[in-house]
Amino acid sequence: MKILEKAEEVTSLLKEYNVNSISELRKILKGMPTNGHKVEITQEVLVSLGVTSIEELEEALKDRDLASMFNHVSKPNAAMFLYVQGLISRAKNNILDHLKTLPNYDCTEIEELATTVIGGIKKEGLQVHIVVRPSDNGEVIVYYSSEKDTLDYENAELWIDNGKDTPRHLTLGKILKTTGINKIPV
Q: What is the dihedral of CA 145, 151, 157, 159, to 10 degrees?
């Protein structure tokens, strides 16, 4: 009887997260804090957040939802922030270099609007804003209001770079498929 109950529970979880297999469920749950456990702030977490200074981290942790995810006992050091700055710079350069090779992008008037937001780019003749993020750890946390505000524009794109593969445009469809989100409040 217990095996049947467990099978029903697993089936219910798969339906709840809109996935077809345990491996898909693991991908969704990987890294999520569970049972009140918090994730320690590591170099990788700083990269995902795009936080490049202690001031930015302190500002980020003022967001209760974000702060509730992380254990802030650890003290990031200067080397960690320099590492993050280097990855953001690398991602930005790799993405811009890649966009310059694409025939439908005109990058002759590039301007940095924020650390991870680039303007002055035209795609098929229309102005487009690009949010650039490193994705070395297999995830991106869109935190900054400048990123969220930019991605609110109709002609905005989120581009990611992991330092190994060709940079790529992270589309809404890919985000929905990867996260299993199928319901969005409007």
A: 30
153 DSSP assignment: S
Q: Are 74 and 43 in contact (CB under 8 A)?
A: no
Cα 7 from chain centroid (whole Å):
33
- Chain centroid, CA 99 distance in Å: 19
Q: Do 160 and 70 meet the contact criterion of CB atoms below 8 Å apart? A: no
Token readout for 12 is: 């219910």
Question: Per this entry, what is the length of the chain?
Answer: 186
- What's the rounded Cα separation, in Å, for the pair 84 and 119? 22
The span from the CA of 28 to the CA of 149, in Å, is: 26
pTM: predicted TM-score of the whole model, two decimal places: 0.63
Give per-residue pLDDT as tens, 55-71.
776 676 666 666 566 55
Inter-residue contact 131 to 158 (CB < 8 Å): yes
The DSSP bridge pattern shows strands 70-71 and 39-40 to be parallel
Dist. CA 63–CA 9, nearest whole Å: 34
- The CA-based diameter of the chain, rounded to the nearest angstrom, is 68
CA dist., res. 4 & res. 7, Å (int): 5
Per residue in 137-170, pLDDT (tens digit) is 888 878 778 888 999 999 999 999 999 999 999 9
Residue matched to tokens 């700083």: 46
Report which DSSP code applies to 164.
S
